Amino acid sequence: MLYPAPVVVDADVLIRNVDYALRTGRPGKLLDSASRNYTLRSGVVLFAAPQIAEEAIRHLGEVAERRGVPLAQVREAWNTLIVPKVRLVPVSLEVVDDHRVAEVGALHAADVHTAALVALLADCVLASDNRKHFRPFGLPDCKEVPTDAVSSDLLSLSRFGIGAEGVMLVPKLAGAATIEGFKRVIATVGRDGAVLIALIVLGGAFLLATSEPARRLCSQIADVVGRAGPPLMQYMAKTIAAGDRVGAFAVDRVGEPDALAVVARRLAIGQPVMSTAEVAQELRMHGFGFRSGRGHQAQTRAWLTRMECFYEVRRGHWALGYHADPISL
């Protein structure tokens, strides 16, 4: 897997990342790899239950005392690092059908909301230093696979995602520019004149390609590719290995996804904001509908409103969870 699954974070990881930033002056690898706001370009999106964020905020005073800094400075670090990069997703325990959630709650009641979010977004990665509380999910012990090692792999994957996006952007922009330019040519000289110009350009390109300067340029390009090829292949191999490790660490889904899981996962890693019509179409594509005679789209909106994990960004447009407001300094 080249692009990681959604990442659910626990309170201890949030606190540790704030503490690390205050101690070193830079964000930890997990937060450094995360997308901001509603973008998914980096391939790493962080989620947490609102109860977990509240628990972490209650411990910020301990971080300030440990680092010997004013509480306002710790809160500012929270607002800078956590607020824009972690989306809070409330999940009702009654709507998640996964026996592991109740088992986690029996081990440690405070972690039941994180367990419900993990069950909703599975397959996903759970970043937690208290893995003994999540034994029902079958996570390896921290001594076997440290949370920092998983964060490092996620950072590698996010950098690969950003690089791939950048590489793909060049031909996209070039293609768009060519199309727009050709439209302007047609508007100026007419369709027949544009065809004649295209033939002249193609002829010129053929002559250039068969000229001595073009052959020298092709030779230089081949030389660069020959030198860059082996390091690039090594980088690809490392990225694939990182993806395999993250995939092996991820929590698997139990059973087939229901309607809630289908829409939540699409919003988590596929399309960060969907209209009511798009959600209705997504439900139909997976065979989900409503028994009442009312319109499917109207009932979809009513269903989205009932599910507390969905947040209406603007009228008729939905996201998974929300970004918390900055806390007072």
Name its key features:
329 residues, alpha/beta, Rossmann fold, 2 domains, four-stranded parallel β-sheet, three-stranded antiparallel β-sheet, 12 helices, 7 strands, 60% helix
The low-confidence runs, each spanning 5 or more residues with pLDDT under 50, are 164-186
The ordered string of helix (H) and strand (E) elements is: EHHEHHHEHHEHHHEHHEE
Shape: globular
CATH structural class of the largest domain: Alpha Beta
C-alpha termini separation = 41 Å
Strand content: 5-15%
Derived structural class: alpha/beta
CATH topology of the largest domain: Rossmann fold
Radius of gyration: 25 Å
Percent helix, as a range, is 55-70%
Report the total helices: 12
Q: How many strands appear in the DSSP assignment?
A: 7
Count of distinct structural domains: 2
The CATH homologous superfamily of the largest domain = 5'-nuclease
Largest sheet: 4 strands, parallel
So, CATH architecture of the largest domain? Answer: 3-Layer(aba) Sandwich
Average pLDDT metric? 79
Please explain how this structure is put together.
This protein folds into 2 domains: 1-256, 5'-nuclease (Rossmann fold, 3-Layer(aba) Sandwich); 259-320, no CATH class. With 329 residues, the chain is of the alpha/beta class. It is globular, with a radius of gyration of 25 Å. The strands form 2 sheets. The protein has a 4-stranded parallel sheet with strand order 3-2-1-4, with helices on both faces. It has a 3-stranded antiparallel sheet with strand order 5-7-6. Helix 1 packs across helix 3. It is built from 12 helices and 7 strands.
